[in-house]
Backbone:
């Protein structure tokens, strides 16, 4: 119910925006009445990355404020996305300790996650992804207690330095749209692990079920900022009022709904196909 | 004097101040990768607040800035200071890295509409090769540079490419942060007044040129005394009309931009001047200086690595041509060229080696001394 209230508020803000017309053009006459349920989402046409590529950022900007602009690589092409610091703070990127380290293959992601740490009042160490020994040195030297990384960097780290001392790390937050659970669980205890499904253009939208990880399964739940349409190809709606709101965004991730009995508050479960 | 190794031991000491202050945005972590010699270093530091000063010019009068810093921690530190310090409003940053240097950059810049560029001169110069839209280039009002000494060729290039940009320079290092105060309109290129928050000294002087040593607070309880930054400078003795009595001229990184050896000096600026004269034949270059022990004598040798142009390789003996031309034109003392020193038997003849590319490095290191 809370998500529906948030969504209706978001829709109203988009509807009333004086300048940005990205969604107005996409949807024609905007469905401005409050939604009774998320079933009504089907009345809004989906958007795809091509829509971002075809529309300059000024046409998709619904909020203005201090922001960080990111370059998003989509196939061989690139487009821009902005994250406003105030809304970035509300992202669900995982468990934050006192000494977080950030390690991503994509530098724009690394910068964004570092700003997220700052907005949550933790001082981030941004590890150099192009220099393994400097990255390892700094993560160890900082006595890092929570690591934010993507799967490929984590794999590189463990492949190259299987004997590195990461005993201080209490939370591994692995963020992205691809995880090899077998490999991850080979190196990291499930209780320290948090897999966050996220894309550069949407931010986080789902998290791994802790009960699932303990039994070796990768089951995901939508996070509290997201509504997911889980029926084949994933469609994401973010409830955050982002500079470019993400509503019914279809992505290249195929998912399947799961009946899964766990202790999580969120009862919607799915697996990646 | 404190060395980098000794400074490294204090790298985490500022943590206790952060734990007391409990406001992470006031702090930053810098990691040096060790690419210019030595091992990596992690240093936690408190940023200057707005009232304390510290290169305010970086954050003034612009709203949409692109940051071109090679090291990720520099990019984060500079861009976060920009956003955290800028007044309320629509301030926006875009950080650019090496992988973004491609033809799409032109389209993305049209979309972002920057009003300023900040970063390392050599990185920005590389990026400008991909930004063709003159409307975007005309829209750049401020070009804010740091970390490298600006060469004549770079200055000319920026003035042509960015006709409406005011070039402002600051001087600092990853470990120390700002070493210079805000730019002074009366000073020449690569000249600065020291930041009033630090104690600035020039030590180990020889012929008026010495190493920069700074003393400063890393955080309220961590004081760094006489840290050698690894940079060379000379004091400018003429009084500045602004009233500031201390002025220094940054000459370059010791053993990387400005190399003293066997009574001679190789300066990056001088090397670039000579190579520029032969730009029809040379696309890019690196020079390594070695001191060789031969019998009882120490003889220096310069090894030139050259990426040649098509025109160069149409010659019968391109190596001989370059050896002769460079030797006759490259000054290593006030009056002596490399060729003269070779002729006197004080230097070994230079080596010319042709290569296809140079490995990528965050900072452009064109000359260096090797063991």
Residues:
């Amino acid at each position: 119910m809370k998500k529906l209230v948030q969504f209706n508020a978001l829709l109203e803000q988009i509807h009333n925006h004086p300048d940005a017309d990205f969604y107005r053009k996409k949807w024609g006459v905007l469905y401005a009445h409050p939604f009774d349920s998320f079933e009504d989402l089907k009345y809004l046409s989906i958007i795809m990355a091509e829509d971002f590529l075809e529309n300059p950022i000024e046409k998709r900007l619904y909020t203005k404020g201090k922001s960080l602009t990111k370059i998003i690589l989509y196939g061989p092409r690139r487009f821009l996305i902005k994250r406003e610091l105030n809304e970035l703070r509300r992202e669900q990127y995982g468990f934050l300790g006192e000494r977080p380290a950030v390690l991503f293959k994509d530098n724009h992601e690394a910068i964004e996650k570092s700003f997220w740490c700052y907005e949550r009042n933790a001082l981030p160490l941004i590890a150099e992804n192009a220099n393994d020994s400097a990255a390892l040195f700094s993560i160890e030297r900082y006595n890092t207690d929570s690591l934010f990384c993507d799967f490929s960097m984590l794999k590189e780290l463990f492949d190259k330095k299987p004997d590195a001392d990461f005993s201080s790390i209490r939370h591994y937050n692995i963020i992205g749209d691809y995880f090899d659970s077998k490999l991850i669980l080979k190196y990291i205890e499930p209780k320290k692990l948090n897999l966050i499904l996220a894309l550069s253009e949407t931010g986080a939208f789902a998290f791994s079920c802790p009960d699932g990880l303990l039994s070796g399964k990768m089951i995901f739940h939508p996070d509290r900022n997201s509504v997911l349409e889980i029926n084949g190809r994933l469609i994401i709606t973010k409830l955050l009022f982002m500079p470019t709101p993400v509503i019914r965004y279809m992505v290249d991730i195929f998912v399947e709904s799961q009946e899964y009995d766990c202790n999580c508050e969120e009862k919607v479960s799915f697996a990646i196909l | 004097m404190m060395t980098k190794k000794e400074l490294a031991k204090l790298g985490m000491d500022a943590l206790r101040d952060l734990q007391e202050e409990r406001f992470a945005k006031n702090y930053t972590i810098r990691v040096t990768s060790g690419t210019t010699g030595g091992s990596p270093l992690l240093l936690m530091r408190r940023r200057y607040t707005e009232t304390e000063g510290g290169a305010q010019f970086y954050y003034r009068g612009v709203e949409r800035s692109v940051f071109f810093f090679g090291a990720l921690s520099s990019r984060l530190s500079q861009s976060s200071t920009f956003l955290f310090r800028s007044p309320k409003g629509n301030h926006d940053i875009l950080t650019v890295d090496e992988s973004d240097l491609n033809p799409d950059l032109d389209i993305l810049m049209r979309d972002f509409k920057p009003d300023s560029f900040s970063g390392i001169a050599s990185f920005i110069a590389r990026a400008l090769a991909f930004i063709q839209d003159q409307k975007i280039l005309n829209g750049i009002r401020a070009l804010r540079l740091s970390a490298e000494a600006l060469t004549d060729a770079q200055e000319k290039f920026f003035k042509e490419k960015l006709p409406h940009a005011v070039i402002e320079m600051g001087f600092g290092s990853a470990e120390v942060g700002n070493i210079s105060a805000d730019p002074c309109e009366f000073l020449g290129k690569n000249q600065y007044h020291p930041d009033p928050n630090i104690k600035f000294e020039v030590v180990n002087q020889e012929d008026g040129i010495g190493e920069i040593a700074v003393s400063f607070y890393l955080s309220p309880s961590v004081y760094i005394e006489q840290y050698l930054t690894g940079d060379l400078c000379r004091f400018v003795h003429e009084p500045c009309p602004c009233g500031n009595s201390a002025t220094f001229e940054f000459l370059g990184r010791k053993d990387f931009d400005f190399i003293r050896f066997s009574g001679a000096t190789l300066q990056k600026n001088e090397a670039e001047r000579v190579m520029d004269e032969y730009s029809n034949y040379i696309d890019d270059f690196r020079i390594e200086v070695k001191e060789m022990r031969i019998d009882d004598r120490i003889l220096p040798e310069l090894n030139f690595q050259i990426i040649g142009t098509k025109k160069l390789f149409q010659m019968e003996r391109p190596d001989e041509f370059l050896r002769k031309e460079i030797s006759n034109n490259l000054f290593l003392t006030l009056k002596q060229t490399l060729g003269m020193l070779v002729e006197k038997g004080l230097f070994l003849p230079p080596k010319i080696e042709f290569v296809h590319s140079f490995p990528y490095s965050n900072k452009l290191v064109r000359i260096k001394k090797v063991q």
About this structure: Chain B touches chain A through 46 residues (CB under 8 Å). The two ends of chain B are 24 Å apart (CA to CA). The longest helix of chain B spans residues 72-85.
